[in-house]
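Support request, please re-run this one:
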Amino acid sequence: MDNLFVSNHPLIKHKLTKLRDKDTDPKKFRELIREIAGLLAYEATNDLQVSPKDVETPMATAKGFELQEKIGLVPILRSGLGMVEGVWELMPSAEVWHIGLYRDERTLKPVEYYNKLPVSPSVGLCLILDPMLATGGSAIATIEVLKRWGVKRIKFMGIIGAPEGIGLVHREHPDIPLHLAAVDDHLNEIGYIIPGLGDAGDRMFGTDY
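Re-run finished. Output below.
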């Protein structure tokens, strides 16, 4: 499928297996989310623009490079927050903006309750961060907010996707690359990914009662 990039990295596969395990505690779950996010960000940013830059080593002048593009991170609250640190470890200068969405449990549609974006975008690329791409509703809503805001380049970065959500995002926004660690089998009747890992936010913050 065009614009779908599923990682085949052994470290991601290993860490994702631990992440899925129902016995993984919240502390370890958060660590794994952060680590997987960093590995995915490495792959999702392989087309960033760089410009030449010379630096002085202890021995001589070396030709090098520096990033040209400013990066914006848009974690979808709340579970997207767990992915920010992993990306920040690679790109500490990345700006972070927050968009709050919750899923109406009756309609399974996203409802926007928080939007803290500057007046105009100041970055070349926005990475939308959300561990689970389930129905696709939250991803589409966030993409539409960013496009109306004026962002030119947008990528979605998640950990597990369902075919239903992937298909919907591709139909609505075929220009948006999707970077995932895995694509699972299907959604169940209440919109959870199967086999998935449960509710990422609840497991991350220890609120799964």
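The chain has a mean pLDDT of 90. The chain has six helices and 15 strands.
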